[in-house]
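ok trying again, last paste got cut off:
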Amino acid sequence: MLTLTACGGDGDSSDDSSSTSGASASATATADTGGGSGGTTATSDELQGSWLATTGGKAVALVVNGRQAGLFSTGGTVCSGTAGKESGARTIRLTCTDGSKDRATGTVDSVNKTSLKITWSGGLGQETYTKSEGGTLPSGLPTATLGS
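nice, full thing came through this time. structure:
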């Protein structure tokens, strides 16, 4: 079984960048410089929640909580960063602990109640995520490699 947790702040958006850790704070602090806080918050609301995908036979979970974003893969990849509006586009910026740049910057192509499409600027290209409802994983995710 795959268990996901996300740490959140007290909801005060004025100190969001100080609650991110180490390299991700400096790499992502500039992610919402365009459009002001109103535009960033509205964009993040559309992305809010847990999104799941299967890429290369591995389960991938993207969690957006306000302007904070985290990504976890069954291959061991753990990334943190921001989600917001940048130059008029909804953008996700992540820094991964394993140094991977595959999902460093993603542009949201579309989002609705059940589906999220992101094009990553790294070699990964486009990924399609399904919204996780009620804290449960959707059927069809690989289980043989979970936790390894």
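cool. Strands lie at 49-55, 58-65, 68-73, 78-86, 89-96, 105-111, 115-120, 125-131. The longest helix spans residues 36-47.
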